[in-house]
Amino acid sequence: MKHQVGASRTFHAGDLTLSALEALAGAAIVIDEGLRVVEATPAAQKLLGVDVRRGESAPQLLCGTKAKRPVAEALAEGRSIHAVVPHPRSAEQRRIAVRTVPIEQGRARHGWVLLLEEVPESGHAGVVLFHGMWTQDAGMKEMFRIVERVAASDETVLVRGETGSGKELVARAIHELSPRRAGPFYAINCAALPATLLESELFGHKRGSFTGAVSDVVGHVQRADGGTLFLDEVAELPLEVQAKLLRVLESRTVLPVGSRKPIPIDVRFVSATHTPLRKEVEAGRFRGDLMYRLRVIPIFLPALRARPGDVRLLVQELVAAARKAKKTRIDQVSPGAMRMLEHHDWPGNVRELKNVLSYAFALADGPILLPTDLPPDLGSRTVDTGPEPPRELPRMPSDPEAERIVRALDRARGNREQAAQALGMSRITLWRRMRDLGIAPSRARGA
């Protein structure tokens, strides 16, 4: 049986099935209950470096004559496995990650799908895990080196980075690498509280100092004594609170609201902002003297879109962590889904990526994360192919069928062949309906 696709290519049904498998799983091999190869995607054959023959023994294909045969043993025992094995046909130190997914109907098992992926030589070539932050990006690694060096000092640090990029992780790394690591680490979001409450949260208050102050309360500055205080979104501090924070930094004492007795403190301050403090100073919203006190050592945290090579790495690590915590059944991310993730701009950075994957973990049914498991708006971004001349959009026709045809032509960018396929009619039928409904030929191309 053959299927006609377009005007020039013809696919057999088996070819179409194999193409679908590769689109979903990438490098994959389907084996029967006797562990013999049924199908292998071109990506799998390229990875293995051989033409994989139908009927070939999968254990022999993957393990050869090696003494250690974890994949072969697991398959023989009917167990699923995720293992890293030496490349079967490479003298170099290449390795392959193999995940096995059972093919079942009810309680009957009919075979397996083997999902393959090459593992870089070092396990993760060039990959670094630094205090909860994964990367293989040179800019991030340089930032890690700066963090390690400044942690030993006691100077104030200002971390600049976009929302969701991991500024608090950087602050915690500074604390954990510093001589203050045995002391407390406190964090407060300066944008989350109104001015009156923020002042009390930071500096504390005495009983009776204002309505509702029924007891003495110790503020975050005093609680962080001997350790580190992280001021997130410090640019949002109200001016009156800025003045009091400046006095704390200059005198190394804190004066709770309603108190007349300053309390000595020993605190290292690490602040963070997503906006340049200099611009806030120029706009009159931030004190210049406080800015210089807070940004003795500035650290710049790259946005996720500035390190696109980290998206795949982060996805793999987040999926692995969720699977280990039994929060998902996902074992693999389909090539299509990975392309969508890698092409997204990530304005919300790593936090947005985590939220997107949490959405997918909640919706996905099978072991492979598909494009349809991702939030609908993630696929709305199109790759920019260069500027197009502006054009006036014509008025949409009132006839329902005409409107349906015009929308299909617009989605297909005027390609009549694609529009006809989407509408479930032939190209000639589409042309006739356009003529009968008075739809201008300029709407279409490829006539």
Please, could you describe this protein's structure?
The protein has 447 residues and is of the alpha/beta class. The protein folds into four domains: 2-119, 2-Layer Sandwich (Beta-Lactamase), CATH 3.30.450.20; 128-300, Rossmann fold (3-Layer(aba) Sandwich); 308-380, Helicase, Ruva Protein, domain 3 (Orthogonal Bundle), CATH 1.10.8; 400-443, Orthogonal Bundle (Arc Repressor Mutant, subunit A). The protein is built from 17 helices and 18 strands. It has a five-stranded antiparallel β-sheet with strand order 4-3-7-6-5, sandwiched between helices. Strands 11-12-15-10-16 form a five-stranded parallel β-sheet. Helix 5 packs across helix 6 (167-176). It is extended, with a radius of gyration of 30 Å.
